[in-house]
Design brief:
Blueprint (H helix, E strand, L loop, with lengths): L2 H7 L1 H11 L14 E5 L2 H15 L5 E5 L11 E6 L5 H13 L3 E5 L6 H4 L2 E4 L12 H13 L5 H12 L11 E6 L3 H16 L2 E6 L15 E5 L7 H7 L3 E3 L5 H18 L15 E3 L2 E3 L2
Parallel strand pairs: 1-2, 1-3, 3-4, 4-5, 6-7, 6-8, 8-9
Antiparallel strand pairs: 10-11
Helix pairs in contact: 2-6, 2-7, 3-6, 3-8, 7-10, 8-10
Amino acid sequence: MSHVAYELGTQPACWERAAELAPARRAVLPQPGERTAIVGCGTSYYMARAAAVLREEAGQGETDAFPASEFPRHRRYDRVVALTRSGTTTEVLDLLAGLRDAGVPTTAVVGDPATPVMTAADELVVLDFADEQSVVQTRFATTALTLLRAHVGLHTATVVADARSALVEPLPDGIAGRGQFTFLGRGWSVGLADEAALKMREAALSWAESYPAMEYRHGPISVSGPGTVTWSLDEDPDGLAEQVRATGAQWVPGRLDPLAELVRVHRLALAVAAHRQLDPDAPRHLTRSVILTTGEEAVR
């Protein structure tokens, strides 16, 4: 069994632990009314986007999300939360150092605390039980999002039950042999759709795209046709399924909680990788953490 396969299968248990941990770490996470930014890189950035929408939907306050490298340092925030599995990513550490100099309170949600982020952030929330050996992120990212979702009161036991279902239900027939995948979301699940497409590119070297569901009809639907898949992670806009099927594409509706739908996509990525005889534990050109040294990338 690959590291990715093992780790994605442990997500329901990790989500339960994160939800239990959230009340104990409430004081170091954004407080109601605080103007907050959530940052990350790659997968963690997409989770940040989802968490930001959820926090605003919960009425907790204005919340933005940025890639750590694109954080607008001229803006003022009451707190910045950094999502970082490794705790070593250059862009995150550079940003935390700058925010400390500017007097902005920071919290890092991290998988491995024995890393530079331990001293770079003012506060830590450690999810070491969700850390991973794989390059491709699955359980750390969704567990960090679950922590923030539980913190604003939007996590339920149904989410975990749906994730367990996502691990055992058969994938749609013939889907692993398709050549192109499009993922759609709405609201907070737009970030999840972007993450779903990233997983297909990372683990399965697939042509994968993602869009807000309503935007899909404004041009991107033109690439749909026989041999392609359009997968909705959330509620379908009226009439969209029929329009997609009319192109000859395979339509996959979202039936579970959107985060559990992402678990189904994790399984899809592994199935496509197996179909193409790829090793999902060794994604092309990727490392577990991006550390920039004199303009070059290194592994740590």
